[in-house]
């Protein structure tokens, strides 16, 4: 994967994760889940996870060490566990909420809660997000150790994904700030990749 594409993947991933929380309605009621914004916001997050995985693979090709390869593998595993939950949240809850509003049947929303807090879905979701955090931290350590990129250029992204699970339990403004952190981390790492490529070409 070309460094330019790797840079674009990290930058786009950061943009999409901020879009996720900004576009997604702040509430979790039927009206929020039935909205187009609910679908668009969660779709942005799913695309962000995929681009993050691609970025991690490209980062390994730039750094060339074993730790960055492991970081890419862990990130892909985390995305694989997380995406089914996001897909069900996005499309499944949207359908349930629309039917609940159309039929004036609030009891249907109990189905949404049964899914969201079911033992297996929650376990997969939490494990996936934890692995994403671990993968991002491993990548940041690899960036620091190899010295191919500015040593701290992976720190913000690692912090953002390490906090991905806890931020769900915070107020909406904090969640927006978390989206800004991931955006900053993605742009920072993307910029580091571009500047490193420019230096190599100039040399």
Automatic annotation (TrEMBL):
Bilayer-spanning residue ranges: 5-23, 35-55, 67-86, 120-141, 153-170, 176-196
Keywords on record: Membrane, Transmembrane, Transmembrane helix
Keyword Membrane recorded: yes
The name this protein goes by in its record: DUF4386 family protein
């Amino acid at each position: 994967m070309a460094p330019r594409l790797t840079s674009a993947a990290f930058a786009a991933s950061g943009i999409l994760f901020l879009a996720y929380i900004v576009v997604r309605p702040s509430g979790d009621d039927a009206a929020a889940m039935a909205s187009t914004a609910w679908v668009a916001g969660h779709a942005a997050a799913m695309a962000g996870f995929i681009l993050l995985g691609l970025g991690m693979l490209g980062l390994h090709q730039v750094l060339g060490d074993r730790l960055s390869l492991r970081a890419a593998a862990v990130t892909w595993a985390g995305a694989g566990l997380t995406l089914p939950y996001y897909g069900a949240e996005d499309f499944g809850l949207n359908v349930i909420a629309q039917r609940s509003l159309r039929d004036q049947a609030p009891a249907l929303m109990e189905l949404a809660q049964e899914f969201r807090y079911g033992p297996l879905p929650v376990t997969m979701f939490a494990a996936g997000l934890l692995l994403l955090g671990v993968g991002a931290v491993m990548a940041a350590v690899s960036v620091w150790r190899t010295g191919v990129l500015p040593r701290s250029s992976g720190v913000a992204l690692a912090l953002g994904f390490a906090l991905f699970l806890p931020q769900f339990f915070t107020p909406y403004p904090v969640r927006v700030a978390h989206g800004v952190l991931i955006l900053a981390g993605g742009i920072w790492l993307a910029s580091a990749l571009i500047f490193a490529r420019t230096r190599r070409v100039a040399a």
